[in-house]
Amino acid sequence: MPQHVQGVIAPGRNEPVRVETIVIPDPGPGEAVVKIQACGVCHTDLHYKQGAINDEFPFLLGHEAAGIVESVGEGVTDVEPGDFVILNWRAVCGQCRACLRGRPWYCFDTHNAKQRMTLLDGTELSPALGIGAFAEKTLVASGQCTKVDPAVAPEVAGLLGCGVMAGIGAAINTGNVGRGDTVAVIGCGGVGDAAIVGSRLAGAAKIIAVDIDDRKLETARTMGATHTVNSRSTDPVEAVRELTGGFGADVVIEAVGRPETYRQAFYARDLAGTVVLVGVPTPEMKLELPLLDVFGRGGALKSSWYGDCLPSRDFPMLVDLHQQGRIDLAAFVTETIGLGDVEKAFGRMHEGDVLRSVVVF
Ligand code: APR
Ligand code: ZN
Ligand code: ZN
What we know:
- The structure is a single chain.
- Helix content is 27%, strand content 26%.
- By secondary structure, the chain is of the alpha/beta class.
- It has two domains: 3-161 and 328-360, Medium-chain alcohol dehydrogenases, catalytic domain (Quinone Oxidoreductase, Chain A, domain 1, Alpha-Beta Complex); 168-304, NAD(P)-binding Rossmann-like Domain (Rossmann fold, 3-Layer(aba) Sandwich), CATH 3.40.50.720.
- β1 and β2 (18-24) form a beta hairpin.
- α4 packs across α5 (190-201).
- The mean pLDDT is 97.
- Bound molecules: adenosine-5-diphosphoribose (APR) and zinc ion (2 copies).
- Adenosine-5-diphosphoribose (APR) is lined by residues 43, 163, 166, 186-192, 210-213, 216, 231, 255-258, 261, 278-280, 352.
């Protein structure tokens, strides 16, 4: 029997989001219905609402979530009702060219639920990133459910489903930060702070936080930054070089997504160092760099897609490290809110007041 639950939809471009009744079909083959316990508010949800991702309104927002599997469809063996899971947007296919070459974290053909959730009048909803978890329940592909230790708080676990994983993964997976490395992180919001946490976890010797907002730099310190640079008042390239013996950092993580900060990352890096772009640019942005500098400075210029994470490998590991007190993911939860507060949370996000607002059920 299809179920009726409450969920937050974005009805149209730049229209306020609102709570509506959502119809959840029974899970079909390869699908699961998950009872959501917590779901973080991410920039991507705001981008959906603004029509910046695509035009397939109405969207069922929310994609940074944890909950309990309620029911599974035919042929599902990886999870069962009662499992505590984090939802991921990288349910790997096992058969695309990336998966076949043993690089499933790049999977080019990830799974989502085949059936659509709808409004009461039958209007089909587009779930954000194939998840749609600002809702009491949601329908996903079973591969989107990653089992983790149920002892962790859901509002903390859910954050690994997107932003925090993107940042930690930018450091440990894409940037391959190692013991003794110097790292600079440009942009210290939720993603940049997570990159700082990841860098510390990996054993970085020096972690330089760069931001234009002193409040963000203060938080960055509590996350593990050893040095901070306000790039509104100080040239960040010069500052990073000064702090690294005149050379630049081994790894620079760009967590803003703008040409000028990418350029800073490019030049704040030591010879043969690595730049990781985890901030997401907009379509009109362009980058110009002397090609001789690209050649002459060597190293690697990489993008980090969702922290190049493999959910089945990374989510349980990071939950365990959090439970052991070796990383503090709870520090990313600024406030918990109700389902009706998402519009307000977008406002706070815009003001830069929060790392994460998390809807709890
Ligand atoms: N130089 C340095 N820092 C900057 C600059 C700049 N020119 N412009 C903005 N910032 C800082 C902000 O002060 C803020 O601390 O970047 C940070 C951005 O943080 P958030 O807005 O909280 O965004 P976050 O969730 O961390 O995501 C960052 O990653 O996944 C992508 O789409 C996401 O592009 C976004 C980026
Ligand atoms: Zn694949
Ligand atoms: Zn997200």
